[in-house]
Model the fold of this input.
Amino acid sequence: MSSDLYFPDHRHLMGVTLLQRERLLPEDVDGKPERPKNSRVSIRDVVARGVRPAPYIVIEAARDLRLRKPEQLEKVLRVQLNEEVRRGSVVAGKVRRNGSPVRGKSVVTPRGGTVVYIGQGRIIIQEIADPVAVESGLNGTIVAVSEGRGVTIETYAAVMQGVWGNNKRAIGIIRAEPNDGLEQIFTDEMNNEYRGAVVVTRRSLQPVTLDVIESQGLAGVIAPSMPADPALIERAFDMKAAILLTEGFGSARMNTTYFQFFGEVEGRQVMIDAALPSVTSPNPPEAIITVPLTGERPLMPPANIRLRPSMEVHVVNGDGSTVTGTVVDLPKDPVILDNGLRVPCAFVELSTGETRYVPLANLEVYG
Amino acid sequence: MAAFTSPTPSNGGAFARTGSILAVDFGSVHTRAILIDLVDGEYQLVAKGKARTSAGFPNHDVNIGMIRAAAQLAYATGRRLFDPDSERIITPEQPDRSGVDVVRFTASIGRPLRTILMGLVPEMSVASAYRAIAGTYVQIIDTITLDDARSPQAQLNALLLARPDLIFIVGGTEGGANSSVMEFVNLARLAMRFGARNVNPPVLFAGNSDLEGEVRAAFADLTSVFVAENVRPSADREQLDAATGELSLTYDAVSSSRGLGFERISHLSELGVLPTAGSYDLITEYLARSHQAEMRRGGGMLIADLGSAVSTLSAAIDKRVLTTIRTDIGVGHSAALLFDQAGIEAFQQWLPFTSETSEISAYVLNKTLHPAYIPEDRRSLFLEHALARAALRYLLTISRPAWTVETALDKADEPLPPMFQIVGAGAAISETGRPGLSAMLLLDIFQPVGITHLQLDDSALIPALGALARTTPEAVVQVLDAGGLQFLATTISLSGTPRAGRSAARITITLHKESGDQTERHTINGGMLWVYDVPVGLTATISVRVTRRGLSINGKGSIRMQVAGGTAGLIIDARGRPIPLPAAARQRAALILSWYAQATGDAVYEPPEEWFKEARVEVTPAQRRAEKRAAQRRAKEAAATETDDRLADLSGEAVKPAPAAEKSRRRRGKKGETAPEVTAAPDTSDKDEDSDEFRSLFS
Done:
């Protein structure tokens, strides 16, 4: 990989920009968009609804009623296609005057649901399906509709992208943690100051921090890191609040650039999409912040940023932390690192004043 | 599994001779492009390029990464490959030498084909179907057979709720069972009829060919049906090629429908986008066939691709090729899944320092977040290499049971059967920039015995050649013959347990140089990874004799042979088998660090003393106070509960007095609870300052 034709990883950190975000139903959910193209949506509007597939019940009615031919089932049916039935309802055969089944001469459904198939002597009922609704999460305009899946919304907002999320979404007001840390609001008496807020902490999350998040009813937390403890991660997944990490796993503290960014947007409404990252996930976990649009309307952020000297970058370290730096030089040949590897590198001056060769793969551009 | 008997034409007569070839492999992290062209009438690798795969944010289009990789080819060769206006590959090659004649795509990105397999007998057609899926990214999410004890309702729910990408139906020998196969067909049809999915999954039928018409008719109005030759035409015969080919085409179709930009490029190649793993299967077969003499002597060969999300191991053993693909083993996206399966010991045994679970798991989880990360410091390097070793050793362990039937070779704890060739692929192994390091990693992972030739596929040549094998086989032959794979080293590995520091073998090397032969004699001590520089292009005649009882070179006391030069030279691995890895960190460090030094020729690294201390957990004073308060509260709640319990007990029967020892334990427990469980790190005052700074910024 040549250093003069290198396009590093890219994360957004922008005061205001034009964004397009898809809001789609999960892959296993069938449904439809709720809003047409070009309609305006608010942050809490539902833009798509669907149902999660529910199990099916196969009732061998012809066999249970000892019918000679499956076609005879039609004559003794007590339900029809698409009819909703309750648990214990008679679906075929004889019934008493009060509607109750006749033992040995009627067939009842073991669970409630909708009749989806009748034929070949069988009645198939789908259990009541779980409804799923997708909120817009943004104040903007629908610019595309994907049939059966959802919509794409366009908006102007500030955006910060992190590295990991607990697969939750949250909407709230951005608040800074107390001076002594998030853990200081862990009191026995109720404290409503942070309820429903999205709190930014500069410290690594600890088990006690998760206690605070739960007990105080925070909508979400933006933190640099959390220990790589499976129990803690499991707990984070189980929490209602959205958790977004900006650096990674371990004890890394928040990069100064992010920390300054959140200082500038405190008090504003934020939507955290703490998506769990994957190879092809549409976006990294991110925080989209509603900001007033002043002056000219910004364009979409660039997607093809080639690494060049004098460019500001984030250097990713082995412990997951990042540090800001400036590219000083891009050597044409690979460089031997202190650890013995020989890889393509950039010569970077870090914000700490230190200069060093950094593998190209460890650089991220932001903007 | 592929048998060596399948025909692959080796001359160009049956195929159209094409000109320039652009082959692109889309991995989870990198997109690699290579340009192959006719030079003096022979196919040669002309240029290679690599860029980050652009399937995810912010491009969501694999084309972007392909254009970036191909731009490097254009830069290196001065040829124009893309039309900037249409942003498409120029094909065929133009008179001004812009563009290429043939384009081939392979991909390992994206999730595998989620497939439900329906077949009659687990030991027959179902077993054959499992072998047919080797070489493509198929994940069997459920198997429905005649032996399935589930009710029809449960089977129906399995079909409907799993939402497969493909239903693969096999079963019935030719002229054999009909009705049982049709029962499966009817079940699948029923599921599709009221499944309420916008698009039903396609069906691949590779069973009794008498049923082809009925199967097509059953799904006519519901979904598309692909039909392949019966995978098990008779009880003692298996034919997998057609089913494997259809699975590849289905993979292409599903890949295209998933977005990521594949739909825009798939049509440029008449074969669409092929699964990368299929190439490993094919090229392993080709290489094994090219080395029939070694195969006849009982040797085997391996190709291992260690990816970020997917890893593949193809083995040619006992005249068969067996490929294992695992989408949960990798050193990037799949690192955490690997960690869960392989266990921490698989990592710790390769670390030259005392390591805590938290450090290893943090490194592993951070690799899933930054899969392309390259370690900068030594500690990270050892963690990275431990991850690579753990991944491929685990893949080897789970692959071996399928290699041989009813022999000890398939037991994971037995020494590896002799391998005359091992090829490594994947950035973690092939892109260390130091051939000696790459060779050492391959030796550590596979621990071969006897004579083994180590090679690297550092250009992603194998995916490309596999994609070319069916249409331009002479390109495969010529590019491989021209040294397309990097030859690392000939290695001679001693079996047995050599004593460290004592003579294990003696070697006489005669290096054949233009200026004349140069002969040297060396004694190799036990525990050494002895590396001798035989430059590429030179040959040497070597004579190796073990000097201690209990040691051998794959059963022999001495060997004499000619070796070709390699980028890592000639390696005598006198560490013994299995490679000894002491439990004590300090002893382990001494060995591992010396092997790194021997492999690279660098000085032995002196580890800092803190590498052998127990790690401490950093906790801020605020967190410590909060932990203390939380513990106090928990203790208070526990005491209250205990009181309640006692009251409840008193209401029933008399409470027995606790034994003194138990009381004492309880007291100690309570006392323990009030103290934080973690060791406090010394000072973090700067953190409080930061916090104030943060506060002031917000205000």
Summary: Chain B is about 35% helix and 20% strand. The longest strand of chain B covers residues 42-52. Residues 2-107 of chain B form a domain with the Nucleotidyltransferase; domain 5 fold (CATH 3.30.420). Residues 1-15, 642-699 of chain B have pLDDT under 50 and may be disordered.
